[in-house]
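Practice problem: predict the structure.
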Amino acid sequence: MDTSQIRPSGDTASPSQQAFFDTLLSRQSYWPLAEPGPNDTELDLIFDAAMRAPDHGALRPWRFALIRDDARAEFGDVLVDVAARREPGKPRAEHEHRRQLAYTAPLVIVIAAAPSAHSHIPETEQLLSVGAAAMNMLNAIHALGYGGFWATGADAYDANLQAALDFEPSERVLGFLFVGKPKSREHAAVRPPHSRYVREWLGRTSV
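Answer:
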């Protein structure tokens, strides 16, 4: 997408505004991802971005877990274990390929929600808040020069995996952010025009 003609406000975008939109509109998912992953200072920025998500009721319904370095080996064990428990009729060896998922990026961030059942805020809004936090993280990951890939699937919704990763029974894993350096940036994702999904409401039509 060519962002050179974007004018965020007024007749002329400032260089900082243009740089912001150039970054924002160039984000896409990359897979697989290589070393290195973000360092601790960069991770602080990524999680600080998550904290800026809209949060009705200030419930802070998000929970995150980092998996990196040597912990990826045990994460691979967990992936094989939970797949074998889901399909006990299959030989365990048929699930061994699941182990490789733990090594497709140097960092995995587990995204989870801790919805409050005692709040007047609907659970749907709380889950949307977690999604907004995850999107802020993906934008921060991209702005720092890394690639991110949000994955879900059967593992994310498996109670055995949630328990193995030390989440509480009341918490819900919603997916995984795989983070690292893109192996290639050659192919930009083609996006449809936003006009397909946007309409202007002009008031109630007469009945």
